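Homework help thread (please don't just give me the answer)

Our assignment gives two proteins as sequence + structure token strings and asks us to describe the second one. The first is just a warm-up. Here they are:
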Amino acid sequence: MESSDVELDLQRSVQAVLRELSAQAPALQSNRGMWRWSLHKKVERDPGKSPMLVRILLRELEKAESEDARHIIIPLLHTLMYVLTKATGITEELHRRTYAFCTRLLTLPAPYCTIALDCAIRLKTETAVPGTLYQRLVIAEQNLTSELYPYRERVFLFVDPELVSPSVCSALLLEIEAASGQQTPEACMRHVVSHALQAALGEACHAGALQRKLLASSRPALEGYFHAVVTAVEQMAREPSPSREGHRERLEEIYCSLLGPAVAARGRCGGDSLQDEPLSVPLPSPRITFHLWTDEEQLWKELVLFLRPQTQLRLSADLEALDLQGLLPDWELARASMLSTDSGIERDLPLGADELLAPGSPEAERAGLQRKGGIKKRVWPADIVMPGSWDGPPGLHRRTGRPSGDGELLPGVSRLHTARVLVLGDDRMLGRLARAYRNLRKRETQRFCLTPRLSLQLYYIPLLAPETSAASRRSELGELAAFLGRADPWYEGIVNSLWATIHKLAEMPLSLDTSQTVDPFILDAITYYVRMGTQPVYFQIYTVKIFSGDLSQDPAEDIFLTELKVKIQDSKFPKDSFSPRRRGMAEGPGAELSICYQKALLSHRTREVTVSLRATGLVLKTLPASDTEVSGPTLCTPTAAPDTDHMCLKVSVTEIVKTSNLAGRSFSVVTNTFRTANIQIQSQDRRLLTLLLDKDSCRTYKDVVRFEVAPCPEPCSRTQKSKVLGLSSHQQEMERNKAKVKPLLIPINTFSGIVQ
């Protein structure tokens, strides 16, 4: 195919991606996500097309910048960075043009400037040291051993068997296992060496001879080549002023030692026509572990196993008896104080037989006067809030931002591990994830062993059961996915379109022929999402305190993420035989409710409202239902108001209105809606209530007479408590007033966060 035909074919593919982002044509809806996948596959099968695709994408980005078409900037920029990470023949001029474009985006508001800054930082290193992005990505995702780059990543895929059919679970597991079987450590090391040499040497690299040499090398020899390449790349990338020419010279030495001077010289002189065709170096999919969701503590268990040494793989059934060997040094470093149990005077300590001192000796005199260190205080960093880097700009409904990446919450403790937790399911699964996330944060306030060493990233792919795939049911159980799709158009096209494809995969007959190589679309889409989805959208978790009709029972506490539905039961709680019936409380449909709430106002003034009404049900939703509620109120970001004022519930009350006329009494139904952050509801006429949390039938509370809803607070760590112990009562009160109660927010990663 001629160069003009190749460029025209790539241009058509890019235009198809742009039409998918700009139009809502039904013909394009059925192929959402496929255009991006086919575009990457074209350059993966023919690496020589990569420079041409980079030029086309840069041209479209510069055109979008001049026309202020911001809705396509982030998707095209993610596509461009993905190509630059995998490609080997990109010139320095193209790298610099991309870097210059990213620097111009820094003048735009978030999330454009946030994503552009991240891309510019990575491009600055990639321009001087080609192949750095690919090498670091493979080392971290495949857990390859490297002293110069010790970072580790893993993708945890959680599927609840109660919400997802067994056929879907089996299909996903088979696709993951088929891909992981071809990604041995030896193959990944060969990919790293081959990619680094081709990226640095360009046309001077004899790709065919290099690949044959690496395939014929033994494991020790291959490890030697791998560590030599990694050392050369990392040392050059860490220099204050890395040089592209210096990097090329270093890798030329490795290339000559690998192939020999004769073959290397023939490659530089162009003695073989095959060298003009660069071989494709695949980017292995990340290491994905498949898990069936069984209980809320499973998330914490898997994260602990991820951090533990490889030689210790036994997991105790009792969580409190779980051996955290290997993590304890971090906890010892994080301990605020070490309290001695003795008096602190050496003469009070029992002496051994070999430690007896002669009475009246100078040593005995000094021993009676010396003290041991009783309490060794440590100075806590001022920003040791868990996690201190997950604070985004406030908004009326949602908060969006980007984690600061690998940092140190404690001195000397590096966050070398990244756990990417991906859940499949509907809003019910997200409700269960929110409970597990809250339990994880509460456990960390007691042990504080995961947070200093682990960066936790959460991802979500909506997946509904086939019997619930009707439009109405899909909109009911996929509200959070629909919100993310409205907030991030690229998430809508890449992630929200996967559920139908996953069900089609489950319906296909299993192929036992492993000799054929297939392109796993679903696994590729998941890989693209976990790699490029770096912008979290924060959702408020709400806590509900539930009082039952049985006064002997203690109030129950639970949380919800998307919805709390209240239904009126037909039964009543026992009536006091001596209490007279209240006048004016006529029998009718529904129940008499007393509602006390704090009204959410844009002025952030406190306004308490108490009403009594008869209703047949209530629904408390945390997500806005329209595009105007996503983009409009989020622009209001006053800094003086506390964080809880920016979170609000949308409460819909189905009220029964009684009317009297000549024909008699009649009842009409009216739906009232208001916004609040805190609400208390109590039944007034002995009618019992039923609460349904996050649309999950397994989380139903019956025989309820009163409940209270408020934003779930961030668990208070023992470090924060220890700061107040040594203060007077007045100082303690001042510290408590100074420290505002932070709401507990759960981050779900998307490609761009909330696009204004």
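The one we have to describe:
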Amino acid sequence: MPQTSVVFSGILGPGGSGQVQPGMGERGSGAGDLIFQDGRLVSGSLEALMEHLVPTVDYYPDATPPLTSPALAMRAMPPAGWAFSATRSPHSSAGLHPAGLWVVLGHKRTFIFTFLLTSRVFMPPHDLLARVGQICLEQRQQLEPGPEKAKLKSFSAKIVQLLKEWTEAFPYDFQDEKALGELKAIAYRVTQCDEENGTVKKAITQMIQSLLLSLAARSQLQELREKLRPPAVDKGPVLKAKPPAAQKDILGVCCDPLVLAQQLTHIELERVSSIHPEDLMQIISHTDSLDNHRPGPSEPVTCLTLQCRGDVAKTYSLEAYDSWFNCLSMLVATEVCRVVKKKHRTRMLEFFIDVARECFNIGNFNSMMAIISGMNLSPVARLKKTWSKVKTAKFDVLEHHMDPSSNFCNYRTALQGATQRSQTANSSREKIVIPVFNLFVKDIYFLHKIHTNHLPNGHINFKKFWEISRQIHEFMTWTQVECPFEKDKKIQSYLLTAPIYSEEALFIASFESEGPENHMEKDSWKALR
């Protein structure tokens, strides 16, 4: 069975000693039910983790505690290796990246991000928000009888800050009417202590306005992507005749492999930027429903697998990016199979090999894999006379990098090298890392399935969710890179809208180029005609 790229047994297992540490400030009855190892939160009951999320007058999640308590100073820090930056995403229409919690607030805000991200495995966001509202109400009721209104106002401001961080980090949690209703209910409660035009009310108003803008921007993006989805060519037109020689192909639009690889990178970064952390958690949220259909070693775990079992609206971004990979593979196969002359088909194959190599050099592994997949599709792979004329040394190197043996060990080594280059880069060109998305999905899937959610004592295995959150954080960091290459609208328009043959049409074009050679191919050709 495929394994994840990191060995987790020592990191995520239930073994090891732990200690219970109390929360900071006044907490509820479940707050002591948290286990720390070396000062880091590793497990706890769901109720304790929820209470740990909610601020009090004297406490805010992940805030730096007094230096007189070194153990508490480390209490909710993530595992080593986390790095956070204060940057803006070049692709985010709202300015701040949708994963803005860890982008904007720096490395101290990791428990909030990790718990808000991973808690949806156990409950939908609107239920978590409802529980947060209940805890807030209980805290407020304890404060109201007191004479000091300043404490009540301070508590309200911290609740608003938590909600602000939530709506910035995961705005699409609030597409759900229940969640939006819970948000408004909490906002109403915390503003009751504030005077007209007070700072708390102003903060709430700004938060709601920003949230609605983010939701509207995503809706518009989905509509635009639907309009740009390329049509498939049906069987009829292909059967009648090969396309005329004068009809434009990819070489007529761009004959420079480097330029085409750069334009593919533009498209990749634009499309992957529409994926948000909560979208990636759908990989986990929906895999629990796959127990009756557990994918085997040879069956890929894809976004399409998730889409047919999950909420289509919530997996839209994953589905769209997965679809782009398939469309690019089919476009490569179409461009090869539609060519009439063998000499020109040979040139087309060598061109795409060079494009894939340039993608590898850039760090665009997803497009590279899609191109290789397109050339390995049966209608292209069977063109033996054409391939005999191709200089395949470069192609052999590319296939070596994408060799699936040892869980794609060669690819993972190359990905690690690109990641290290990105971390020490002095230019935007060196920062580009676009992993093979289906392999990333598979890694998250098996990380979730291999390691248990709960420990023997009933606690949530928070070590596991630290690691899931770390991997998602790393992926989201890659999506923030601004593409340094000049955009060519003509080339991109062709890549996104050029007709793509269906699988059946590809076989027809392939057989017309090089006739069937064995009984199986002859039977297939006969059935297609």
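TA reply:
I won't write it for you, but here's a hint about the kind of observation we're looking for: The beta strands are 19-20, 34-37, 40-44, 232-233, 460-461, 500-501.
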